[in-house]
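Q: What structure does this chain adopt?
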Amino acid sequence: MPRRACRPPTSAAGSRLALAVAALAASIALPETALAQDRLDSLAGRPVAEVRVEISGTPATDPQIADLVETRTGEPLSLLDVRNTIFHLYHLGRYDDVQVIASEGEAGVNLRYALRPTRLIEAIEIQGDPAFSDDELLEVVRGSAGTLTPVSGVDEIEGALAAFYEERGYFTPQIAAEVRETARPDRVRLILTISSGGRARIGTVAVAGVPGSEQAAWLGAADIAAGEVYDQAALDERIEAVRARLRSQGHYQSEVSLTATRRQDTPFVDLEIAVEPGPIVGVAFEGDPLPDADPETLVPIATEGSADEDLLEDSARRIVGLLEAEGYRNAQVTYRREAGGDRLEIVFTVSRGRPHRIAAVEIGGTAAVEEAEARQLLALTVGEPFVEAALDAGLSALRRRYLELGFRAIAIDSSVAETGGPGPDVAADPTVVWVTPRVVVREGPRALVATVVIDGNEVITDEQALAIVGLAVGAPLYDPAVAAAADALLVAYLNRGYRSAQVEPELRLDETSGAADVRFLVTEGQRLVVDQVIVTGNRRISRETIARELTVQEGEPLRLADLLESQRRLGELGLFRSVRVTDVGQPGSPARDVVITVEEGAATVFGYGGGVEAGSRLVSQPDGRASDELDFAWRAFVELSRRNLFGKNRTVSLFARVSLRRPNETPDATGDDADTGYGFNEYRVLGTFREPRLFGTISSAQVSGFLEQAIRASFSFNRKGFQAEVVRPIGLFTTATVLYRFDKTRTFDEQVSPDEQRLIDRVFPRVTLSTFAVALARSTRDDPLNPSEGSFVGFEGTVAPRAIGSEVGFAKGFLQAFLYRTVPGTQRTVLALGARLGLAAGFASEVPDPDDPDTVQIVDDLPASERFFAGGGTTVRGFAQDQLGDDDTLDANGFPTGGNAMLLLNSELRFPVWGNLGAATFVDVGNVFSRVDTFAFGELRGSVGFGVRYQSPLGPIRADVGFKLDRREFGGERERAAAWHISIGQAF
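A:
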């Protein structure tokens, strides 16, 4: 039996508001004081002695409520102020009723606003004999009425539960609802006492549409037997299983249905299963070969579970379209049905015809458009297959170009003639039809803008309006440009508060001269002003936090841009499940209330996850030589955040990540540990406090403490410390960051031999650093994880003076720039370009020689943890992680020592393959140099490669293989030719 659909409960607050305001227009008629109209008139204008606002008899303490009351003590009583106050209070969305009680006192009029809260169900308790668990029943309630349902929704809850019980075979449940008060006047508890009653069972089961000898088999397939409990949902699943079984056997025209009939005055339900198996459907192809595609994709009867005429016609058209795209201009596909016994064969006959190729492209009549540009717009290439759809697309592009130039009467004729081939060697090929598309353009007169006039404008001056529309005298007359100009002017009015403004463009064109007069007729309408900004729906988040993000201001014009910007800013806070910004007002009044309705998200967020990262990594061989091998790192993380601390959008979070990975040195022990060497050798623990509005400004501040351990190619390190940073946005796309960091770093598991280690690494195996950094970043990327358009430019400069506690002094800068462009003529093919440059220098200082403490050495280098390294899945992909370097930054065994200078250049072409699967080809170039003065472009090393991409919900899953363009020898053996990298996210 079908389950009864239950709509969410609706509130009558809107209708009550209309009635209240309408009644107040005539009088203030209230239970405690039924004041007549003449009595109100006598009170109007008298001074207001007292104004009280009560919620269920208790004085209101919310400052927002006091702000919404327009009647003020000491001012004359205005019925308009009273009406506006009722209007404002209703739109808080918290009250079912607002009553105004007035009395006359010696000092004037005493007003009391009595608010009756909208009572919401905050908890539901289930008692009695419900037969189902509380979780199951509460899920039904949430699906029907949602969370924090008004008391008025109790009937809906009862109806949803009754439908649920009926579906599960309980036809006579007893459901009683009782509302109980709580300590809060706007919250109640709902007690549901349920007696499920007896459950129906299946009486008889019959199968219709199949011979009697087969009925038992069908009942067995459906797994339905007499005497079982009746459960409609379970029966529907079993019938669907029968349908799926028939489809898997090729019965794509099968029909299976279930009819349930309740016996009068008995707890039994009789079932009838109607089965029409239909024939087994097969698909065959004859004639010419199919296009290069999966036949099941071309004719998806198995996927769709159907073989109806619409599907078959679509399949035939699909095959024709693919053949035409290969140049088979005259391709034809027909189909027929061949029935025999219990089988139905659908036979597609494919006739490709001869392939058509382009011998030449002839263009005539072009004057305003250069022939070279016209050919580029047509995009037809000699020697390529001729596709009619491609010619149509090219003609449309050419026509659009002429319209942009003002040729409104443009006419383009085209024809396709069979001709000889483009050369004598191919003209004689009898299997190919060579064609020449001919395009003849009749340009006609050109229309240019002669005058631009703005009429009806008063708020915006002529000069301002002309600058907004942007139409220049002498420019081509292009209808979409005129429409866009009108829209721009309309938006300007909307952003000044003129909600009902209209802008109508009018054209007067002299066909002889081509001169066009453009007139924009403006109807400004009434200017709307923000009366009150009402925030509702917030419980934990303070109104001040919300108001701080709003650009709408009371008393200011109601600007469309302010409404959109306010909603965007609130959404970016990350505190709300939903944000809705609306404006409401009384008919004929320019004053509008802006209502900010929010639904808060969870204050405490807990997350966890895991994954695996794979890539080429340098490992030490028994002879000490570095060799890159495919390495897997298994990762897991957990995160706990508490948002909206003290109602001010402050956040404190704890993040922990651990990786199961092999260390740099393989254990000497034997057994399983010696074979794998895996352990929790990498981890990171990060605690963060974030202040989104530092000292009430648009800058945000963040303080973090961290403890981490990581593995690099030639060493491992352990680091602990803290950092504080301030981030300030500059415009829409740019951010500036100032950062201070203090940390202590210890290196271990060094792979570089001591005699080749840098002096600073031997002197400071443990180093304390105190650094300042400033950064600027500008990003216009359309998607930070998988961009297809835009750019990113960033610079970071870091200095570590010994004067503020750093054991080693240095300065370094890092500049990076990336550009992303969708290739013209494609939808998803993206060209990505990147460049990164790093330069650093150490501050010279005297240190004792570690081998001879009585000798002083000069150190002017950076510690290993701060030097530049390159090579790997995000830099130059033909190399293992950190493997890239020159003679000064790689030791004799091939392990990197890092450098003070680095240059990386990347280019990648990303293109779709099928569905969410894509591919990429790339060229990476770069190197790491020991010092800035040893930087040399001639020493750059490169790699080329390709990869696959899968667009998962977490982002693009990437697998790349890069091939070195030059290989070096270490320990008598050359580097591996290729390196593999697998991870989530694009390389850059």
